[in-house]
Amino acid sequence: MSRIAYVNGQYVPHQDAAVHIEDRGYQFADGVYEVFAVHQGSLIGEQGHMDRLDHSLSELRIDWPMSRRALSVIVREIARRNRVRDGLVYLQITRGVARRDHPFPADTMSALVLTARRMPSLDKEQLRKGVDVITIPDIRWARHDIKSVSLLPNILGKQQAREAGAYEAWMVGADGMVTEGTSSNAWIVSKDGELLTHNTSHGILNGITRLSVLEAAAEAGIKFSERPFSVDEAMQAKEAFVTSSTSHVKAVTVIDGQPVGNGHVGELTSRMLDLYVDFIEAKGGPKNTATWN
Ligand code: PDD
Question: For residues 160 and 134, is the Cβ–Cβ distance under 8 A?
Fold first, then answer.
């Protein structure tokens, strides 16, 4: 089956999908994106992704290319046309096509592109296997809450992780605190047994998976704190994991070459994976998605 993409109003064969060379996304990274997970035929966290998209667009003063309702139809349609039962929908909106000039162009329509990709279905055994992370300096700009397509520090960090044989790199601010992974949120269970992830601020991207995990924890009566943790705290943690639409809840068993806890998936991590899957299957995604700063 051939893949189909959506480009500015048209469904086209994936291999022919192209944007103009003066799209500001291409020239300036002047755009935003979302990655939706599709699990067993359902979109996960659609409301959250749309609310976060609205935040990113409004912070950058990029217009919605169409109504939220119309966009939601296209998100479903691109998944359907690509027969994605388990996988991803990628959505990108840029400020549009204009002669290269730094200030915002007048009267330019935002540009919209979507792709969809099948992926193996969520595999708990695989997610519990545990991966390595490394820590690296966070060299990004100061607005991590905006899901900008400007991902150069993230891809450099991910590549550094790969070259070190690790799955992810956790980025560390000048204050020694872990902000997040290059494409995921970072979590630990501290040496005192506290479930921790960075609080929402301009310092992290507030993950839709992160929000689901927090709501699932609250429902199960599991205590957590949303606060920054240091690399030292992470090195002494009992457990660690990452969350994202592509990684779900994935155990981290090594940080900077040192085993986390006993070097195997932690008890709470394992439980959070079960709770997360139950939560998305029952609720479809997080409900508390109105604030993004
Ligand atoms: N990345 N932090 C960063 C920097 C991210 O890029 C992502 C997601 C997350 C997790 O967000 P969510 O749970 O909403 O997927 C946190 C996507 C998957 C990507 O860039 O491919």
Answer: yes
